[in-house]
Amino acid sequence: WYKKNIMRILKKIKDFLLNILYNAPRVLFINFYKYCVVRIKVHSLKKIPEDSSAIFAFNHTTGSDPIIVLGALKKKIYFLADSDRFRTKFTNFFFRKFTNSIPVFKNEFVKNLNSFKEMFSISKNKKIFFGIFPEGNLIKNDKFGKFKNGAAYLSYKTKLPIIPVYIHNIHKGPKPGTWCDRNPICEGIYSLFSNAFRKINIFIGEPINPVAEEIYKDFKEFTDKNSYKRIIERITEELEKEFLQLKEEAE
After folding, report:
1. Longest dimension (CA), the chain
2. In terms of Cα–Cα distance, which of 165, 167, 163, 156 is closest to 228?
3. What are the helix (H) ranges across the chain?
4. For residue range 127-175, what is the model confidence (pLDDT) as tens digits?
5. How wide is the angle at C-alpha 109 spanned by C-alphas 105 and 113, nearest 5°?
6. Beta-bridge mates of residue 41
7. CA dist., res. 137 & res. 134, Å (int)
8. Cα distances (angstroms) measured from residue 68 to each of 117, 189, 191
9. What is the pTM of this model?
């Protein structure tokens, strides 16, 4: 009995020390970047709930977006990212440990089961924030790309509100189509440096509640298995409207 308890205590100490070891570089780097390299101003921070979980939806311009919003919002956010970003040991370590990212597979849907299990394991009985880029890809033309339903689906399944967050006045990084732009590591590093000493504004929109009356009212009469798909599409439409309003406010 004593041996088991000692082993259990030693394991907790080991996990605690490893957690510090893994998280210290991320915390130090993000805070250094925020306070010493870029100037970030956050608008309407009070819209983020203090005592409940939520999903952040961000527009996606550069690979440095996660670092910038982690510094700006001062929240521990778990990002859902394209599985292509986890191909090598280096990128897997960077995205998991520096940006708290969980891989999502676009074409191998069965593999997403492990990602969703990991996500729900993280969120169980905790106040947690997830981050997702509904456009899917980097959009560098000052417009929004087509919003995919991933954020809405996650919101619908978890019953967590989506909070739109618009990143404004960010440098777009390397020129589109170049080798550096196509290489995730090069693009991310280039974007981090190109935004040095730049004033970036973060605009936070109104939370979108997946169980709100205005979302469900048009679908009360539907009972078929496809009704949830219509609800998810409606949530995505509301998200797009919020982002257009935030862009208008920013400009």
Report:
1. 65
2. 156
3. 2-32, 65-73, 89-93, 112-123, 150-158, 179-182, 184-194, 213-216, 227-250
4. 889 999 999 889 998 899 999 988 898 888 788 899 999 999 999 999 9
5. 90
6. 201
7. 8
8. 27, 12, 11
9. 0.80
